[in-house]
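Two entries, shown back to back:
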Amino acid sequence: MILCLIADCGLVAPLQGMWVVQTLISTFLAILFIQSGLDKVLDWKGNLEWLTGHFSKSFLDGTVPLLLATLTLVEIAAGLVSAVGAIEALVYKSFCWAFLGTLLSGISLVMLFFGQRIAKDYAGAGGLVPYFILVIIDLYFLA
């Protein structure tokens, strides 16, 4: 609604307002995944201990360090590429990096969802659904 009011004032062309939405979504994803990835890096031992216990009764038991490293890299990449995408959308009103950041974010969420389901943490898996819906809607509009 606010975007419509701004567009009606002539500040933003109605069909070009998508860059505002994309800037906000990319910024949101950048904050989400940079923070999550950095948390894993800065508290590697704590995360590893918790996840080792979390997956102790699953077939992923012996692979937790590798999976944590992979997830951490994908999350940091998703966050950094989304940050570049936010800047690109804001400055150039272009969405190439935003698309890549959103795609990496989706991959990261699928990885997290898979792990939560395997660990039978259904509440944790359910908490990821709103983020995933945002990513899918964003990808739809960017494609």
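entry 2 starts here
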Amino acid sequence: MKNKIYLYLLIFSALIGLYLFVSGGKMASAKDETIKNLHAEIERLNDSVQKSQLKVLDMQYFSLENNDDAMAYYEHLSLKDPSRYIADKLLETNEQKGDNPLIPYEGMESDFKINKIKLLNHRWIIADFSDGKYWGELLIKYELKDDLGIDFTMMDHLLYTRSN
């Protein structure tokens, strides 16, 4: 009887060992496949990041901050960040009651105000404006004077129409 128990224990242990060997092999191949898929995903994401970085560099081409020739016009001024200073001065035109004086349209839903600003170089700005429902864009010429005053002149504009 004791021998049969040992025999059954030996057979049971062998079956458990066989099961662990087979399932371990399957787990190893599943893990290898997962690792292979993750490496492919990492490579795809790295390519995507590189494309995004190139796109950002391309979008920053027309930007005052990245234009050394344009920034040279402001070296004699004691400004830490000329772009921020100019953008702040343009946004100050929104503080007047009613529509912004640079926008040649009357607000339909409320007053037209400038929302977004992109300084293209040391002379031009493109700006987005809206009244909450209608929107448009402005091309603005500006001049930063030595006394840190700024003259803004609207060069061109457009108002998007809704097509229903």
